[in-house]
Amino acid sequence: MKQDQKLFKGKTLAILSGGGDTPAINHSIESIRNRASLLGFKVYGVRKGWKGLLGDGDIVDLTNQPYDGWYGGTALRSSRTNPFPSKKNPESRVPQVLKNLERYKIDVLVTIGGDDTNGAAKRLFETEGIPVIGYPKTIDNDLRTHTMHSYKGKEIEAVMCPGFPSAAKAISEFTSKIKTTAESHSRIIVMEVMGRDAGWLTGSAIFGGGKLGLVPEFEMTRERKEVFFETVKEAYMKSRNKYLVIPVSEGVRWYDEKTGKVDVVYASSEVDEYGHPRFGGISGIIASEIYGKLGIEARAQISGYYPRAGHCRKYDRRLTATLADKVVDLLLREDYGQMPVLKKIVPFMELEEFNTASIDMGTVGNKPLPEEYYNIEKFSFTDAYRDFLANILEQPATEDFRYDFPVVIP
Ligand code: F6P
Fold first, then answer.
1. Cβ < 6 Å from ligand 1: which residues?
2. Tell me, what's the pLDDT at 1?
3. Which pLDDT score is estimated for 282?
């Protein structure tokens, strides 16, 4: 079809990415760009999230340009800039955003982000009438996407956010590597995993041989800590080669004997423009308390940015493309203030546009792990969670040393 016959001829769509990066953002951008181009849009990229719409603007042209969606992170860069007033920045920068949308003649804005970036986009849509389409992303997988998981005749409200499948794969592989060193020294390694408010990503360690697990959803009070130490001892003693890798979320709320309070461990007292502090260091505290209480050698390992880094994995490539197909539907219907989501948790091959829906961006919020996925009494992830993961990761990444040597008796 000739360009001048295309539906959105002369119109411009701009894409921005905000918040923490994921391995799937470039693939999301490429997929949205390709589809919008076919519809006739000129496609711009806004650099550094909302920051690229402040001042004179920082905009690049993505139309007919090569784009490597397999490469991780975001080539448009990201920031935690909030155009609306915040504690950190009380002045509203919405007028600057509006001015730039007009100056660059941007007709539709697609915002790739979590609750913060998309929350700001939704406010712009509601208060200023800016045509926005939200697009989900977070390795934490805690955005409420209203995606249902059918498990043994039960419907569980799960979440499926681009970025999580790649991060979960990375965490399962990372755990399977850490396992060999824990095993060699008969140690417990407490492995810290990103996840401020939810333990979705922490759970993916079980596909790499991780055992037990602590998540932000359930506070570790003084009493629960006692039960936890007993559970750790039992699991360690039962383990074949006397070792454990225990995944814990960075946002675990842990009872501190000195202060008598249950709190997270902060890496810094600074907060970003959405009011979020940085967490980090809980694994060291838990490892030293395990050693103190049980006398079992324990170490801490922070997986840090590893799950956020590197290439977009297989499941994410198809997921981002499928959700981009739904963006086309929203554009054709000029249905703004919406976000494409997956309706049902399915394996890779079944990721198709008919399994998508769009949700009002106002209903997107934080979604903790459902109780079907985590057993509070046993401090462990359930079979239902394992089934959820199997859809995404297929096979566990873990392997064991296969031989047992005969013991020599003198
Ligand atoms: O985007 C969410 C997240 O990955 C959290 O799990 C983590 O706390 C945060 O980002 C850290 O982000 P940064 O160090 O880039 O500010």
1. 19-20, 138-140, 194-196, 250, 278-279, 308
2. 66
3. 98
Domain range 171-309+370-390, CATH class: alpha beta
Residues 113 and 175 sit within 8 Å (Cβ to Cβ): no
- Looking at the DSSP bridge assignments, the partners of residue 374 are 381
Residue boundaries of the structural domains of the chain: 12-138+312-363, 171-309+370-390
Question: Which stretches of the chain score pLDDT less than 50?
Answer: none
Contact criterion met (CB below 8 Å) for 21 and 2:
no
Could you give the CA distance from residue 226 to residue 21 in angstroms, rounded to a whole number? 37
- Looking at 3.40.630.10, 3.40.50.450, 3.40.50.150, 1.20.1250.10, the CATH number of the domain 12-138+312-363 comes to 3.40.50.450
Chain-centroid distance, C-alpha 45: 22
Dihedral over Cα of 148, 150, 154, 159: its sign: negative
What pLDDT sits at residue 345? 98
Provide the pLDDT for residue 389: 98
Mutation probe of ligand 1 site: the residue of 17, 78, 118, 140 with most atoms within 8 A of C-beta: 140
Cα–Cα distance between 265 and 376 in angstroms, integer?
21
Q: Which atom of ligand 1 is nearest to the CA of 194?
A: 6
